[in-house]
Amino acid sequence: MNTNVSNSDRAHILVQALPYIKRYVGKTIVVKYGGNAMINAELKDAVIKDLILMQLVGINVILVHGGGPEINAMLKKINKESKFVNGMRYTDQETMDIVQQVLAGKVNKDLVHLIERNGGKAVGLCGADGSLLKADKLSEDLGFVGEIREVNADILKDTAEKGYIPVVSTIATGDNGEVYNINADVAAAKIAEKVGARKLILMTDIRGLLRDKDDENTLIPVVKLSEVSKLKKEGVISGGMIPKIDCCVDAVKGGVHRAHIIDGREPHSILVELFTDEGIGTMFY
């Protein structure tokens, strides 16, 4: 505990959070979990505690996770090179087998266990469970990478409304039993849209959208959807930020109230976004 914080300050923090807690009780928030926050023990602990607190105050939480570092490590063990096309993992059949094993197996179950061990309630799901995620092949150039066609939202809603956090690994199935790798940002956005989420939160390894990508002091805190096209033309939105921001745009167009890109390197960044006046990262609306 930080002994430099006075009791008055602690009380102020709690009072400031109260209207936000009231606003989100009974609402659904989808969190995409990835990046450094998944591999740094201190950050992982903070994320898990944020999710459990959200659950305890009556928010329906859906956690969608990636697992790129773990997949890379497993591929390295079998001497298979990771290959990316336009920022997306090329997935041949052997790679798909590894992705399914790592995401739906080790990473997913480790997260469920961590939530349970810290006093929360969670259920691990992959997109193949109950036809949760149905997909078609995105491109021949990417192999077994899918584009989500359907989301069985009822499974997620039922699980969350019964007091469990659905922990979703982004594997999907095709009509003929094919198994596809799905980008976790894309999956989180589509899930948020289909369950009628109040918020979509994408955790990243940068502060948010920066006016100058080399200067973290140039954060743009709020972006209207109508401004996105102009920011792309100006080169402010470029490179790896394009697909992340497109996910936010698609989610808001699909009915999600707000979408956020936040800095997962900041401990308790989810709580700062949800329960403080200042917020954190970049909000799209």
**Span from first to last CA?**
35 Å
Uncertain residue segments = none
**What does the radius of gyration come to?**
19 Å
> Quick check: average pLDDT?
90
| Main beta sheet strand tally, sense and closure | 8 strands, mixed
Q: Helicity range of the residues?
A: 40-55%
Q: Strand order across the biggest sheet? A: 5-8-2-1-11-13-14-12
Going by helix content, strand content and strand pairing, the class is alpha/beta
* β-sheet strand percentage: 15-25%
Form type: globular
Tally of DSSP β-strands:
14
**How many helical elements?**
9
- List the quaternary state of the chains: single chain
Order of helices and strands: HEHEHEEHEEEHEEEHEEHHEHE
Detailed description of the structure:
The protein has about 280 residues and is of the alpha/beta class. Helix content is about 40%, strand content about 20%. The chain has an 8-stranded mixed β-sheet, with helices on both faces. Strands 3-4 form a two-stranded antiparallel ribbon. The protein has a two-stranded antiparallel ribbon with strand order 6-7. Strand 9 and strand 10 form a beta hairpin. Helix 3 crosses helix 4 and helix 6 packs parallel to helix 8. The radius of gyration is 19 Å and the shape is globular. The two termini are about 35 Å apart. The mean pLDDT is about 90.
